[in-house]
Amino acid sequence: MVSGISRRRLLGAGAGVGAALAVGVPASARTAAREEGRSLDELYEAAVRESGKLVIYAGGDTATQQDAMAAAFRARFPKIALTLVVDYSKFHDVRVDNQFATGTLVPDVVQFQTVQNFPRWKQQGRLLRYKPAGFDKVYDRFKDADGAWVAVGVYAFSYSYNVAGVGGNVPTSPRDLTNPRWRGQIASAYPNDDDATLYLYKRYAEAYGWSWIAELAQQQVSFARGSHTPALALNSGQKALGLGGSGNPRATSPTRWVVPAKDPFMAWGQRAAILADAPNQTAAKLYLNWQLTMARQETSFNGWSVRTDMAAPAGLRPIWTYANAGLDGFPAFMGDRAEVERWRQTFALYFGEVAGAPTPGWLGLHPGR
After folding, report:
1. Is residue 220 part of a domain?
2. Strand, helix or coil for residue 131
3. How many other C-beta atoms lie within 10 A of the C-beta of residue 32?
4. What is the CA radius of gyration of the chain?
5. When you count CB atoms within 10 A of the terminal residue's CB, does the N or C end of the chain come out lower?
6. Which tens digits make up the pLDDT trace of 11-54?
7. In terms of domains, do 173 and 303 share one?
């Protein structure tokens, strides 16, 4: 025994390190990370010298959904040629896996809703261990302790309503959506298409029972691909109520997106990571540092920040204080793919198969190359 560690354990640990080296895991994916000490301007200069390029794969519903973020980045760092590719996270993640398998990696940064991939990629040595400035201020469960990934924003799904469309009949709970007066007046993303919407519907089923789901299935809900579609239907006045999409809880017109006091909704930290084999790692570091700045976090469309040292806007609390948000449940749910599939196919029995082309379009194997 040496310092309480057996010879067998020492040999086992050495074998593990040797195995990792044997499969070509980069040292940057194995070594401990310290929090970044360089300023944004210093990182910017280094990124320009490195290549002046950055490629990001981001989860989203439409090609233009991240345009505001991209415009802000380009305005702050005009010498960086940013390529931003938006697609459903469930397509992006397998796209990246295929690029790993074929040695054709395109992105430097991955920023996805499919949170289950990040621990797996870390274990495989695919992610750079890196801690941007402000990492210590990020909510603990919104980051990997070793710096393999960090959440750069908070997303949340709930129900919403068009203020004029509901008139004096404002629903006070998702439970109210099965009232016959709302038949034909509800828009929703498919729960069997988008995993965040799926988790929201799962929470409703567990809270209200399968009889409530059966009643909802009789409401002639207008299902569509893309979690942005309920907001489109409500903002245009086509529907009165929406399910399975994000929104700004501070907005009061023409729609209201509801943070329930007790009923379930769902939220998560949108994870981002630098790939260990990324060719433009300095620009990738610049991006993560910029995203975690207080100035950038203050631009959050829904008011929530991933940082613990920032106060929530009036009327809101930090997202991790909402016990009904399922914050820890979503990553656990996403990690059990057999369970996800059971829920997905069960909802298909109630609401029908997914129909329609993906809203970001068909992007193929190597978008952004």
Report:
1. yes
2. strand
3. 8
4. 22
5. N
6. 343 343 333 433 566 666 767 679 999 999 999 999 999 999 99
7. no
